[in-house]
Amino acid sequence: MTTQTAPEGVLVTTTSASTQTPPAPRPPETGRGPDSGSGSGSGDSSGVAGPPTPPRPRRLPSPIRPSAFGAEDVFLLVASAVSALCLVWIVFYQLTSLSGGLGFLVAWYLTFLALTWLGTAQMIERQVATDRVVGVVVVSAALLVIGIVLFIVVWVAAKAIPTIHWGALFTKDQKSFQVADPHALDHVGILHAIIGTFEQVGLAVLMGVPFAIATAIYLNEVKGFGSRTVRTVVTAMSGTPSVVAGIFIYSMLILTHVLSYSGFAASLALVVILLPSVTRVVEEVLRVVPSGLREASQALGAPEWRTVWSVVLPTARSGVVTAVLLGIARIVGETAPLLFTAFGSQVLNLSPFTHDQGALPLVIWSDVRQAQPVLIDLAFQAAFVLMCLVLILFVLARLFSRPRGRKGGWRRGDNRPAEDDLFARFIVPVPIQERTDP
Amino acid sequence: MTSTLPPPPAPVDPDRPAPFSGTPVLGEPGQIDAEGVCAWFGGRLVLESVDLVMAKSKVTALIGPSGCGKSTFLRILNRMHEVVPGAQLAGTVKLDGTDIYGPGQRAMETRRHIGMVFQKPNPFPAMTIAENVLAGLRFSRVSPASKDDLIEESLTKGGLWNEVKDRLGELGGALSGGQQQRLCIARSLAVKPRVLLMDEPCSALDPTSTLRIEQTIKEIADEVTVVIVTHNMQQAQRVSDQCAFFLAEENQPGRVIESGRTEKIFGEPTDQRTFDYVNGQFG
């Protein structure tokens, strides 16, 4: 920044010399890429350095990225994989009488690792071989996880989408369902469950999130009496099986006739699950807010609540929003706490405070076990809708957790490249500006 | 540079009565008298009986090697020391005769009169440049007569106005390190403090930014008393009117070895240790 605002042509020349062979004075338009914030002034002043000759396009060498992983290495991996397959096949099915697909796959994978190590050690050296094997393990573990997730998503979508009657799914409940009606999907939907889930989750968020944020502030900002105990309790709470949360509300409020089966009772059970998970994440988010900001605020004479409200929370805004969205995603699919609180209903019940209410997880849970193919289809459709909801929440969480654009905002560490930059560098080819000769 | 300034105050005398005890006026430079200031961290004495007068409208530099209690002393002056868990202190600190640790004195009120700039630039990242400047007023629920005037005035005093006047709506984190630090100075000046404490304000900055901030310090010295902690002896010589040399000898708490006019501390120190330190023999 400082070098840019300096009007001398000398400084500007050195910056261009780093990327080009002849140290020629810089022409007017060659801004320094995306970070030329106050570039308008420097562009004018550097034009003074050279005579205003028309710029001439100049050929650049094509950019390269030195890589340690070439065709030879790919060949080595493929060769290891193929030879491992042959070797294991011979041992598995010809020499011994083993059987079973999973065992074969595991044996193949391990042999593949061993052969990769041996091959690389022979062709290159042992350090590189170990490095390569660890790399293969890490990459394959990541691929396995992605594969499982994709499999679940694609499988549910494939089961659900062909049977969906879009007109009915979001507008009808299960009231008019009749046994052995092959066209039931025309007039049966999951509106009651969608409404129920939205109301239960919404109430849980309204009740749980303020408490969760307040608890996180208590743990990290106030650090008051017993905060260590509170933290332990919160941690223990986040390990509570969700069915216990349901039983808790059931035995405390429903059996004692304080509440009847209702969406509200369900949302109370969901709060028990939401509270610790959101609290922990928000606490982590608040912890990474630099303590210098708190000191600065205090040194300006701000009371503690002001510091938290005007400095700490705005700084951690995106993190807090992410925490809340992830918390919602966590509870939206909970089934166990709803079983004996919302209880599930086949008909639309708009009020969360009276009578039992449906919910997406309950539809899945109850319908997928029925002997009616139509209901099984409906359960898969509900699962698909639920998955889409969670997906939307995660996408929102990603959007909010992004740093606030090029203008700056707070970055952890001083010069951490923004996420967008990394993305641009690895996925999108970096546009190279036309350089010109004077 | 100090030769043109009015004669410096007399050497520190702990028994001297408070020189001024009128009602504190916001915006007037103030004088700080520290008497017998001691500090502890977790029961360990780190600073022992410091007596120091930081005269009105003067720049006082606190110099000395690391770990000798300069920053601790500075933080005691605006009650930021007590924020640290396990920190204790003793002694009196008077702002124009009023003991800031006296009964009924509130830390927040004190900090409004005695501002502070930290080692690491810390503009509020979620606020724009303009909001950063106004933050102190917002925190103390004071609304200025004209926000725009105040922003311009504070940023001009902080030496940043010309660089940012067209981008007041940008976030504070978008500035360079040196600009951020000047924004922090402007932010501290916006509440019109009577004393400005600076804890190594240039140690994270390059020479150009350092020079710019030193200019700023000289410019604001008329309106606000400045106390600056620095490791850079040239800087202390350049900006300060008076100096205090802190030293913590082995297994000893930090003490003030010598204090007085900057020319004297650097030119003809009375203590051998001061002479060694300012001449680069150690530290």
Structure characteristics:
heterodimer, A: 438 residues, mainly alpha, MetI-like fold, 3 domains, 63% helix, 1% strand, extended, B: 283 residues, alpha/beta, six-stranded mixed sheet, four-stranded antiparallel sheet, 10 strands, 23% strand, disordered N terminus
Short synopsis of the structure:
By secondary structure, chain A is mainly alpha-helical.
Q: Could you explain how this protein is built, in words?
A:
The complex is a heterodimer of chains A (438) and B (283). By secondary structure, chain A is mainly alpha-helical. Chain A folds into three domains: 2-52, no CATH class; 71-162, no CATH class; 187-406, MetI-like (MetI-like fold, Orthogonal Bundle), CATH 1.10.3720.10. Chain A has 18 helices and two strands. Chain A has a two-stranded antiparallel sheet. The longest helix of chain A is centred in the N-terminal third of the chain and has 35 residues, at 126-160. Mean pLDDT of chain A is 77; it is low at 1-48 and 405-438. The longest helix of chain B is centred in the middle third of the chain and has 14 residues, at 177-190. In chain B, 53% of the residues are buried. In chain B, strands 6-7-8-3-9-10 form a six-stranded mixed β-sheet, sandwiched between helices. Chain B is globular. Chain B has 283 residues and is an alpha/beta fold. In chain B, helix 3 packs parallel to helix 6. Chain B has helices at residues 70-77, 107-113, 129-139, 147-157, 161-164, 177-190, 207-220, 233-239, 262-267, 272-278, and strands spanning 32-41, 44-54, 59-63, 87-95, 98-99, 114-117, 195-199, 225-229, 242-247, 255-261. Mean pLDDT of chain B is 83; it is low at 1-25. Chain B has ten helices and ten strands. Chain B has one domain (28-278): 3-Layer(aba) Sandwich (Rossmann fold). Chain A binds chain B through residues 1-2, 5, 37-38, 223, 290, 292-293, 295-303, 306, 310-311, 314-315, 317, 404, 407-411, 414, and chain B through 78, 80, 83, 85, 108-112, 115-116, 118, 120, 122, 124-127, 135-136, 138-140, 163, 170-179, 184, 187-188, 191, 206, 208-209.
